[in-house]
Amino acid sequence: MALRPASLLLLVLVAVALRESCLGASSHSLKYFYSSISEPSQELPHYVTVGYVDGQVFVHYDSHSRRMQPRVSWMEKVGKEDPQYWDRETQGLRDSEENFRDGLETLRIRYNQSEGFHIIQEIYGCELQADRSKGGFWQFGYDGRTFITFDKERLTWVALQPQAQITQRKWNALPGFNQGQKSYLEEICIEWLERYLSYGKETLLRTEPPEATVSSKMEVEDGMETHICRLDGFYPREIDAFWTRDGEVWLQDTLRGSVVPNADGTYHRWLSIQIDPKERGRYRCHVEHDGLQEPLDVALEEPKSMRNSMGLIIGCIVALLLGVIVGIYVFFKRLQKRYRDDYKKHQYFLENTSGNNPSPL
């Protein structure tokens, strides 16, 4: 991790000697998320920092613990190679914590707001693509809206709110500041990313092939078929999946979902297509992924016949009716028993209270 100063919200740059690591074919990313709120609670700290490598949380700091802490076992290696790492990072984040607190007050005044719940957020990071090209971003938000963002190609900060123009002018006027931001994103951040990948290569550089299944259904209204190709359990997240017709990419009448993480760290996604049943044999779900030795081409399945579907529906209705009939029978049997019991109690009451004053009820 490395941090840089940023006037309103101070960040500390950490530069150390780095080593290269062997990367896989997929892209990789290192990202940090900072947030500070004006009204903390016992459960909710006023300041939190979380670091991610390839979408996996690997470090954490908050104003309750006031200590940068690892969230994955492989980060223990950095402390062995660099014994001052955790103390240095902790001190940098304590400084950042105080500056975020000041930043909240500054922006509250700038927006002419009363005291209450407000939040500052900062997000920055870098990406290393499979072709070794580099990407990076840096932006701040306030109360859920983007406040200011860094354009590293034009070497300028861009204000997205009128209240951010003061910050924009300050940062753009600092000699060498914007060039330093660009260098961090394209050089230092990438070097740290490679170092972290070398520490966690057993986890971060592994490959898990997708499990592909195709389900289908008949649309009664127009006689068309909808087929859904589900891909599950793959890692890394980069996957290329699309429909083909006669071996060519086919985009017409298709939908696709986003790549979504699973609880175990793998990912899943889906894509669907609507076709004429007569052309079912022409289509395939084509899948390419680092975990596959060769691409998958999954054929479409024939939907269950309407007869089978109607049989299933009728069976469900019959089962439901039987359940209702049995339920009614049991209800009346219990009701009949209750009436018999109540009658016996009433007779006992009459026989044993004759001549006494009646109950208030």
Topology:
Elements: E1 28-37, E2 47-53, E3 56-62, E4 69-70, H1 76-81, H2 85-110, E5 119-128, E6 134-142, E7 145-151, E8 156-159, H3 165-173, H4 177-199, H5 201-204, E9 211-218, E10 225-234, E11 240-245, E12 248-249, E13 254-256, E14 260-261, E15 267-275, E16 283-288, E17 296-299, H6 306-352
Descriptive notes:
The chain is an alpha+beta fold. 32% of the residues lie in helices and 29% in strands. It contains six helices and 17 strands. Strands 4-3-2-1-5-6-7-8 form an eight-stranded antiparallel β-sheet. The longest helix has 47 residues, at 306-352. It is elongated, with a radius of gyration of 32 Å.
Report the principal-axis shape: elongated
For the largest sheet, list the strands in their spatial order: 4-3-2-1-5-6-7-8
Strand content: 25-35%
Report the major sheet.
8 strands, antiparallel
Mean pLDDT level:
82
Count of DSSP strands: 17
Annotation field: number of helices: 6
Which stretches of 5+ consecutive residues score pLDDT under 50? 1-24, 306-313, 342-361
Q: SSE order in H/E notation?
A: EEEEHHEEEEHHHEEEEEEEEEH
Q: Name the helicity range.
A: 25-40%
For the CA atoms, what is the radius of gyration? 32 Å
Cα distance spanning the termini: 77 Å
Based on secondary structure, the structural category is alpha+beta
Which terms summarize this structure?
alpha+beta; 361 residues
In a few lines, what is going on in this structure?
This protein is α+β, with helices and mostly antiparallel strands.
